[in-house]
Structure formats: C-alpha cells, structure tokens
Amino acid sequence: MLHITGVAASAGLTIGRVKRIKRASGGLTRVVLDSVREKALFEAAVLLAKDELLELEERASAQDKDIFLFQRVMLDDKGLREEISQAIAGGMGGAAAVEHAADIYMQRIRSIDNEYLRERAADVQDACMRIVSILDGRPRDVLLLKEPSIIAADEIYPSDIVSVDKGMILGIITATGSVQGHAAIISRTMGIPAIVQAGGAFLEECDGQTVALDGFAGEAFFCPDEPTKTRFLHRIAQLERHEKKLQSLKDTPCITPDGQTVQLMANCSCPEDIEQAIAKGADGVGLLRSEFMLMNGRIPSEQQQYQFYLRCLKAANGKPVTVRTFDIGADKEVEGISLKEDNPALGLRGIRLCLSRRDLLEPQLAALLRAALHGPLKIMFPMIATEQEFSVALAVLDEVKQQLNEKGIAFAQNVPVGTMIETPAAALLADRIAPLCDFFSIGTNDLTQYTHAADRVNPLVADYYPQYSEAVHKLIEMTVDAAQKNGISVSVCGETAATPELARRYVGMGIHTLSMAAVSLLEVKELLMEPPQKTTERN
Ligand code: PEP
Ligand code: MG
After folding, report:
1. CATH code of 46's domain
2. pLDDT digit string (tens) for 139-162?
3. Pairing of strands 261-268, 377-381
4. Residues designated as active site
5. Which of the 8 DSSP states describes residue 329?
C-alpha cells in the first residue's frame, strides 16, 4: 500500500481504479508551409477551438460556464496572438508557434504578483493545447474513459472534466495544480473528490491500481490493504446516510428547537442556479448577483434583461427573488465597464458606478419594474453608505417609473426596495436608512472587508480578514436594531450566513432570513433544527 498526501482541493471520499492521463506531446512531423498559409491554418484552428469551447460552456454547470468563456476570450488576447504571429513570421509552423507563445505567456502570468492571475496560467495552457491538437490533427477528447475512474495526471484542465460524461470521473489526483485553479473549482461544483500538489512520484506506477481517495484530508492510499478499504467503505456509507438525511429535509420548514421559523434563501446569478437552489428546498433567492449577466462584456438591452428576470422568476416557481442592481467594480471587474482605478474596492463601485452611468441603471430598473408584474420580485441597491445615497437611488427609480408611465408601459407599482448593508457607514446610519426602505440585507463579505480594511481577495492580508469579528458583530447588532424599530425585515446574505456557529448566532439576534450558496442550504437547515448541545458535540 502506498500512502501519499497532497492538498485537499475538493471534499469527499471515493474508492476506484486509477486512469493515468498522459498528454500527447511534441508536434507531428509535417512540412511547414509558408507563413501566410500557416497563419491561415492557425486562424481556422482558432475558430474551431472557439466552437468546441462554446460546447463545453454549454455542458458546464451555471457557476463554471465563465471558465470556458475566459478561455475563448483568451484566444483573442492581443499579446498572445502577437507572440504567435511573430513566431509564424519567423518560420515556425502554427502548432510550434502556439506552444512557444503559450510558454512565454504562461511564464509571464506566473511571474505576476497576483495569485488569482497566476492560477489562470492553467487555462491559457488548456486553451492553447486545444489549438495545438487541432493543428496536429489529434482528438481533443483526451479522457476516453471506459469505466468510472479516478484520474491521475501532472495537471488536470477544466476541459478534461467537463468533456467527460457526468459520473465517469470518481476522483482526481494531480501532481501539481492548485486549490483555486479552475479544474479544482469545477470538481467542487460537481462534487468530485480531489487532491492537488501530490508530487509526481506516484504517477509512474499508478495506472490501473485501486486507490482510496480522501478529499477531506488530501490523502490517498494506492492498493489499499483490507483494513483501509473497510474504513473507507464505512465512512462512505456514513456520508451517504448523512446526504440522504439532508435530502429528506428539503421540503421541511426550518424551525429552530425554540420555535423560530427561519427562511433559507439562495445566492444565485442566473435562472439555472435558481432552479438548482429551489430543487434543494430554497425558500427563494435572497441575492441575485445581476452583474454576472455582464461578465462577457456585453450589456443586455432592457428587453433582454426583462426576459432574463422573467426566466429567473419562473425558475423560482413563485418564491421571492431579490435582484441586486449591478454591483460592478472591485473584485467584480467587467470588461469595458469597470474603470481603471488604483484602489477599486474604495472606488466607483456598485451604486456609485451605476449612478454615474444612468445608461446602465435606468434600463435595469425599467426591466425589473416590468418583470415584477409577473412574480414576487424585490429590488436591492449595493454599496450604499448613507441615507442620501439611498434617496438618490430611489429618485432614479421614481424617474424610471415616470418614464414608463409616459410611454404607457405596464409595470409593478409597489415593488419592495431594499439595500445591502455592507459598508460600516450604512450600518452606523441604519436608523436613518431604515425609514426609507423595505428591507436590509447584510453583506458580511464586504462589511468585514471595509471594517477591517483588509481586501477580501488579497491573500497577503487573509489573516487580517477574520471569519468572526466582534467589530462586524456590533455593526450587525445596530443594523438589526434599526430594522426592528422601523418594522422592516433584515437578512444576512454574506458567506457567514452559511458558517454554522454564525448562522445560529444570527437567528439568536432576531435575523430570520439567511441567504447563502445553494450547496450549504441543507447543512445549515439541519444545524439550525438541531438542539445546540448536539451540534457542539458533533463539531
Ligand atoms: C457581501 O458583500 O457580503 C455580498 C453578499 O455581496 P458580494 O459578495 O457579491 O460583494
Ligand atoms: Mg458585497
């Protein structure tokens, strides 16, 4: 039995046979044509690759589609193309030129002082290998699995996972890779246990061996002995029983042991997300991050947005949908709309950007008001800091209503309007904002970032961004107090809503609506319905 350890990248346990993935390497020998014809072949390959990536985008789950969109956009990257053109002009064949340019480009990305961008090197490699394979006439579907298998390789790419039928990949072990790489992200979405950075020593012998993989601990046992196998099978059965129990809670209302009813809502970005959340028993959508509609850089028209919101309402099947107006800026950069600022988290972000770009805000509000005729839709403004800002946003909403009236277009007159409480100023002024609005939704992700002055996506200050903060807690108390005194509802929609101890604490403070990623809904429901002492024992 060989025991290896790596980094846990996707939770879960599995036992199965290993299929080692070997990449074809080295160009096929062929005569290099003149540079004009090599360039033409390359362009044709790019077109075909984009078609294939579009297909993968369609196969991917809603959360992972952007990964393939990124790869398609990457193929049009000026710097990369320039590098390829120069190599072809210098006498290289198309495939060799792409490999050469990809190497240079990846080195450049890996040397950037930004972890997120460094993780994208694997996507560049994935997209470029596709072009090389097309030019070499190789099949792109590298994972030709005959049976459900645990795949092992130096590195696994997003397209590897998505191109294979669901259920065929039981687990993933890679010698390199990273937890924040897109392949790991997809494996988490799909619930495939995965270990990355396991070192290359195991690879040579592993093909065809049985392996017991623990994606919680980041370890694997090749050719496991009987006691190890039995231990794994026992834990797998336990997990399955727990999953079954969670599923049985799907349609049960969430009532705490002391009789409080809690609404468990989902954070979503599109109708497909909403469908999945409703299937997991969500009581509605507490936060629709509408800016995800813009991530491909195109601004949908009012009519397109109207259709989108109708689809969202339909997916929610009569349950409420709270749509947050575009929150662009900071970590949510949108090509062509975001500004280049030195400090974007403190810049023209969220409602500030939208108030300076009425061409973005007005069509969105018009589409929302019209869609609200067809279901329980609510409107929410992001990044509000003061009651004056909220009033300005409300005034724009009134203007849009006026315009619709003048055009004789039907819309819902009494759509509830609320605000995110995600800046310390908004929490401190909650008693002044509350009389103006219908609900508060506390965004603890940003509230923590701004309270502790620690960029939420900067790994260098991760230790300064606490999971639990007394300071944030005080701001939440002020917010709840203001909401209660003014008789408006208050929810939490930041990540902390799904943190077991905090979810319980929020309910204890009188917050009866929590909104979170759909994957966490049933776990949180189970926890809130259990008597507290039992939970402490289990954790
Ligand atoms: C938040 O800030 O907590 C929040 C839910 O908004 P986002 O994560 O989209 O900024
Ligand atoms: Mg936020």
Report:
1. 1.10.274.10
2. 665 567 889 999 999 888 888 888
3. unpaired
4. 182, 493
5. B
